[in-house]
Amino acid sequence: MIIGNTPAAPSDLVRQIVNLAVNAGRIIQSSQTGFVHWYHRVLDYPTHDTIPIYENFLFVLALMRERTAESFAEGKALLEKLLHFQISDTGSSHAGNFPLYLHEYPDCKDRNVAANVLPIFYWILHTFPVVLGSPLRDTFHRATERLLDYCLRLRHERPHFTAALKMACAIRALAALWQRNDLQQIGDQWIDELLLQSQEPGFATWYIPADMGEALVALQMVYTDIRSSPWAHLWELAERFWHPRMATYVGPGYHDYQFREQPAVTLLDLIMGFHYGCYSYRALLNGPHLLAAALIHPTGEPPTPLTLPAAFDLSVAGRRATVRQEGSLAYSLLEKLQPDPTRDNAYSAFRLVWGDVNCAHTLVCQGGNVQSIAYQALEGGIDLIFTLPEEVPTEVRQRNREVSFFLDAHEDTQFVVGGHASATTFQMGEKVTIESAGMVITLCASLEEGTGHFFGHIAKGNRTSQKHTTGDGRFKAYDWQLFLRTVDRGPVCKIRASLRFSYGGTP
């Protein structure tokens, strides 16, 4: 297993990425049914009775890419069983699609299943047509055509961008495989439409790590070298926002989740780990997410690490943003223009990342009761300017926690307030010093405009983007929270938070 910054040969990387997917499937495979059992929501108990279609098709592809007689036989047997659950009733609006779980057949509650499964079908047909043998090859070909017809009908329903891109690229790739000019025209036209959409000023999908990974595996079906394709801008952003030393995404925190103490693993972690020849420790922890590694294929792009330090100014959905990378740390800034309840939970106006492949530590500005957030990038740190809403909050549902920061709860984290170690409260104007995993951070809040009385607190808690809050994580806190509590204030109020930080030194 490759953990760290030791490069590996391309053939070794392919073998290991496939082994990751197979092993992930084995762990959740039932010895009674032979299927992969998993439920997409986190449960309060470890038993998973449901059999998901998508993960089982991924397992089939992973078994076939393992390229042994035993894995081929197992993959074919599993594939044949799964095909029986395709909706074949031509009178149904779901004809050609699959249910989300086997027990839901013939109900189809998620049209995105088709978008996820069609690329798997393409790779099986492209790579293993001989291995399938007759009559399974003929059966599978007809199933692919039915699934393709369903995806063509979905085109007019304006699916989510990454789902649309997966379907468009799969249609274009199948057209080349089957030498179908009619499909090629449809695929090319759809891809061109999506390309134009991705270049619009307000487009923000590229700043969501999960969607960026899904888009890259979709484009691999059509382009052997994405960097030299019309989608080169996506690959350029992926390399800008990837920190090889920490093996993690460090771009704008537009929609970024946390799992326990570290950033949640997405397909982007697996793709960039494969590209650079090294993975973070968290990306290799066994879990169903590793099944998607079966979709990753070699491309022609050699790694081009950034020359550090490097800084980028950009616009994310009309918001000003800045990303800066250094040798052992990186930070991103993303202004907030107005409250957005649909996105605020995973929206980070400031995100500082440091560490290495074994652990990526983060400090984020997230949540709170804020109308807007502006920023200033300075030498050795940043300033955030919070504009509070005119409505003065009450104690109800913690709405008076208006400015909030979260730091992963590393065991050696220390807080010093005004020279006092292990303090749990602070006042406006007091310097809070944080030492955590080699990083030294100072935070000082001051009143920028208006009047008000605020009180600062340091306590255990979970950032709003924490995903592991059920099951064994229900009563656990994975972060330290530093927040300003409003005692009283006027309707016009701005707060400035000055942060200075240094890895392995004194800010």
What does this structure look like?
With 507 residues, the chain is an alpha+beta fold. It has 2 domains: 10-295, Glycosyltransferase; 310-503, no CATH class. It contains 11 helices and 18 strands. It has helices at 10-27, 53-66, 69-83, 112-127, 129-132, 136-154, 161-178, 181-198, 209-219, 232-240, 267-276, and strands at 242-243, 248-249, 258-259, 262-263, 310-316, 319-325, 329-334, 348-356, 359-366, 372-378, 381-387, 401-408, 414-417, 420-421, 425-427, 432-436, 439-461, 479-503. The strands form 3 sheets. Strands 5, 6, 7, 8, 9, 10, 11, 12, 13, 14, 15, 16, 17 and 18 form a 14-stranded antiparallel sheet that branches. Strands 1-2 form a two-stranded antiparallel ribbon. Helix 1 packs across helix 2 (53-66), helix 2 (53-66) packs antiparallel against helix 3 (69-83) and helix 9 (209-219) packs across helix 11. The longest helix has 19 residues, at 136-154. The radius of gyration is 25 Å and the shape is elongated. Residues 1-8 have low confidence and may be disordered.
Give the helix/strand layout.
Blueprint: H1 10-27, H2 53-66, H3 69-83, H4 112-127, H5 129-132, H6 136-154, H7 161-178, H8 181-198, H9 209-219, H10 232-240, E1 242-243, E2 248-249, E3 258-259, E4 262-263, H11 267-276, E5 310-316, E6 319-325, E7 329-334, E8 348-356, E9 359-366, E10 372-378, E11 381-387, E12 401-408, E13 414-417, E14 420-421, E15 425-427, E16 432-436, E17 439-461, E18 479-503
Antiparallel strand pairs: 1-2, 3-4, 5-6, 6-7, 7-8, 8-9, 9-12, 10-11, 11-18, 12-18, 13-14, 13-16, 15-17, 16-17, 17-18
Helix pairs in contact: 1-2, 2-3, 2-4, 4-6, 4-7, 7-8, 7-9, 9-11
